[in-house]
Write a structure and sequence with these properties.
The strands form 2 sheets. The chain has a 7-stranded mixed sheet. It has a 6-stranded parallel sheet with strand order 2-1-3-4-6-5, sandwiched between helices. It is globular and about 60 Å long. The protein has 345 residues and is of the alpha/beta class. Strand 12 and strand 13 form a beta hairpin.
């Protein structure tokens, strides 16, 4: 059994990790930590897990937790995983970090968007943990940077088109919409029911922190420098991300060529579903699952290829993908503990 600990287990990504790990056939949860809920029964904070998780929150005593764990999931806020990673790697264990701390190849990009980076242990072998793109690199990693939720939906939507050279790298426009759970468990004024119900708003316009993460991975796929226009929106639902992407296809490329390339690119992927012609994703159809649905259309009036992708921001966009990465690190089939459909209705 893989002995797993979740650091920062009281937030939404933390409880989703615990929910999925509690039912994973190859995992034993050995520790859950929280600064605010020390000694409180986990199922008292989240009664949905009564009968499934009988643990108490504990303080983060890194040496003790690392000693008894094979893998540590860090669901701490940005800026807190670097020091933890150094200690985890020094003890020859694995860290899967759900913050942005290890997502960038160039730490100066992280510093520009998030803040200073402390010294990093040279033994850290980090990889951007989008398995559909970086599966081979995961095998030798000891620190996995779990992707952001918006970037997951966007990169999976664009990967075949850019990797196969079917779409132009210039002028890509991304309109993404997310449920309120993406803002986290801590209450804020803008996320109160009366503030966001019956309303849709754009935020982070022209400066959302996920922009450089998206551009880094799209540039890798394209082989060219890619810059995008990325505008996220908050919609009044609990879970889900729907990304609508507008781009130009190259000369002599048809929609049927694009669709065939997408089906081939994802033909061996368990979690990515390319929909049939005339079908388009809904967040409802990925709710509670680790799946990504992708739909394609060509607007003859404007000459634009339209790519629509849907994921659950807490599963494929966070905790489910983290477990998919853990499975890969430990040589398990990636769908172990994640082989279930969306919740419907």
């Amino acid at each position: 059994m893989i002995k797993a600990s979740v650091v920062g287990a009281s937030g939404y990504t933390g409880v989703e990790l615990i929910r999925l790990l509690a039912l994973h056939p190859e995992v034993e949860i050995v520790s859950v930590t929280s600064y605010n809920y020390k000694d409180k029964d986990y199922s008292d904070l989240y009664p949905s897990l009564k009968g499934y998780v009988g643990m108490k929150f504990e303080e983060l005593h890194k040496e003790d937790i690392i000693k008894k764990s094979d893998v540590i999931f860090s669901a701490l806020p940005n800026g807190h995983a670097h020091e933890l990673a150094n200690e985890v790697v020094a003890k020859h264990k694995k860290l899967i970090d759900l913050s942005a701390d290890f997502r960038f190849n160039d730490f100066s990009v992280y510093e520009k968007w998030y803040g200073p980076v402390p010294p990093i242990d040279q033994r850290i072998k980090r990889v951007y943990g989008l398995p559909e793109i970086h599966r081979l690199e995961l095998k030798g990693a000891n620190v996995v940077a779990n992707p952001g939720c918006y970037p997951t939906s966007v990169i999976l939507g664009l990967a075949p088109g850019l990797r196969c050279g079917l779409i132009k790298a210039e002028g890509i426009i991304i309109d993404s919409k997310s449920g309120v759970s993406g803002a986290g468990h801590n209450p804020t004024l803008n996320n109160l029911y009366t503030e966001c119900n019956e309303s849709v708003k754009a935020y982070g316009v022209t400066h959302h922190r996920h922009t450089p993460e998206i551009e880094q991975e799209l540039s890798y796929l394209s082989g060219n420098d890619v810059k995008v226009t990325f505008i996220p929106h908050l919609v009044p639902m609990t879970r889900g991300i729907l990304s609508t992407i507008y781009c130009d296809i190259k000369d002599d490329v048809t929609l049927s060529t694009v669709r065939e390339a997408y089906r081939e690119f994802y033909s061996k992927e368990f979690f990515v579903k390319v929909l049939d012609e005339g079908q388009f994703p809904r967040t409802k159809d990925t709710y509670g699952s680790n799946n990504c649905h992708i739909g394609l259309a060509y607007d003859e009036h404007t000459g634009k290829l339209i790519i629509i992708s849907a994921i659950d921001n807490l599963v494929k966009g966070a905790s489910g993908q983290a477990i998919q990465n853990m499975n890969s690190l430990f040589g398990l089939p990636e769908n172990t503990g994640l082989d279930f459909p969306a919740i419907y209705p």
